[in-house]
Recover the amino acids of this structure.
């Protein structure tokens, strides 16, 4: 039997029990990190225990939506659950993407329970040097 003493974990567990698992109409939130790496914007979502086929990624205009479902593991009839803290159900996150990102070329990778999206920064948003033209000299305006 497992024993634990973290009172905050117990409060989290109670809140999860009261709210119930996430559903497609009321999904739970998922943890994420977002950062810029070179010419890409990277967003990483924690989805441990979720299979790749249970993840749905959509982009509509500038709204990125990630939904995932953690399904219960099939157990035999002689299994008696002693402790269950891993939340099941649907998890979702929506992010408004800036106009400066190229949503046509998003790359998604899923490894070790982490979904990583790489969104390139659009060419028009990258800094560029503007050359200054030198005129042919001064001109006088006569009246």
């Amino acid at each position: 039997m497992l024993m634990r003493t973290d009172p905050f974990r117990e409060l989290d567990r109670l809140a999860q029990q009261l709210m119930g698992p996430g559903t497609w109409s009321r999904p739970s939130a998922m943890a994420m990190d977002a950062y810029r790496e070179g010419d890409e914007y990277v967003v990483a979502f924690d989805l441990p225990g979720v299979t790749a086929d249970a993840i749905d990624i959509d982009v509509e205009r500038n709204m990125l939506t990630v939904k995932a479902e953690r399904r219960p593991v099939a157990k035999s009839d002689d299994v008696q659950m002693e402790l269950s803290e891993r939340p099941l159900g649907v998890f979702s996150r929506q992010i408004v993407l800036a106009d400066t990102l190229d949503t046509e070329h998003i790359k998604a990778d899923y490894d070790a329970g982490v979904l990583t999206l790489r969104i390139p920064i659009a060419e028009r948003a990258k800094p560029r040097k503007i050359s200054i033209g030198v005129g042919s000299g001064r001109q006088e305006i006569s009246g």
Summary: Strands lie at 28-29, 32-37, 40-46, 55-60, 63-70, 89-96, 107-111, 114-120. The radius of gyration is 25 Å. The mean pLDDT is 81. The chain has one helix and eight strands.
